[in-house]
Amino acid sequence: MSGFIHIQTISDIFKLFRLEDVVHHPLVAVIDFSKVTEHISDGTKISAGHYTVLFKDFNTSVKYGRKIVDFQDGSLICMAPNQVIEMDDDTESTEGMAGWGLFFHPDLIRGTALNDRMKDYSFFSYETSEALHLSEKEKQILLDCMLKIQTELQENIDVHSQAIIVSTIELLLNYCSRFYGRQFITRKSSNNNVVAQVEKILTAHFTGNATGEKKLITVKDLAEQVHLSPGYLSDLLKKETGKNTQDHIHIHLIEAAKNILLSTNMPVGEIAYSLGFDYPQYFNKLFKQKTGKTPLEFRSMN
Known about the structure:
HTH_AraC; five-stranded antiparallel β-sheet; 2 domains; single chain; Homeodomain-like_sf; alpha+beta; Arc Repressor Mutant, subunit A; Jelly Rolls; sequence-specific DNA binding; five-stranded mixed β-sheet
């Protein structure tokens, strides 16, 4: 099969992998890829209406946006509903495939504490190139969580089933947060290069703004320039510097504003426009929030 596939329901997952005969829960599924015989053709684009956590131990690539990414052995990716990936399968058959997939519909967690916490699991917004690379011990910990969910799905459904499944999913996601934290630490050298890139880009950008460039750089702009997703970049910077991407942008912006205020007689409105603000009042508000003074108060006191 090829083209575009949108997996709307959990049942659609079982149809995709030709597992229709398997009895399944309507809102959550665990798939053992070693038992999957259906081959997904190169170029197939897939999106889903649910959260997806994929761990694999077979060679394949996926295309996310314009990037071709080697989804390496022993790596894990998490995708939020409606993200799109493109398969580029370099296996000649499904023989020897190994790994698992956890799929859960937003309705499963709606009204639970986990639903409120999902925004904290920022790795669901990472690109596939920012996959979590697991140690053997970490693989086993996540597998144990998966087996607990699978066991619960095979039991007779009772009043405790949803709470147990949801709490185990939350446990798995908490482990993913911990393991991503470890990955940020073990990749400190490459992370430091990213921090240096960010500083260089922002310095050049706001030097340009001081001479009249009228575009306020966004988190998305900055992430694209360092070839990372906005979520991953923000988490990386937070881990390395204690400040997220927006904080870094604001630091450089305020420094540029201070330099212009003290070295020129430009009206505050013109300074705001030169820095990329469409409305001077937004600049005034941000400047006071960050410095405790209005731009005019800062100028008059220095």
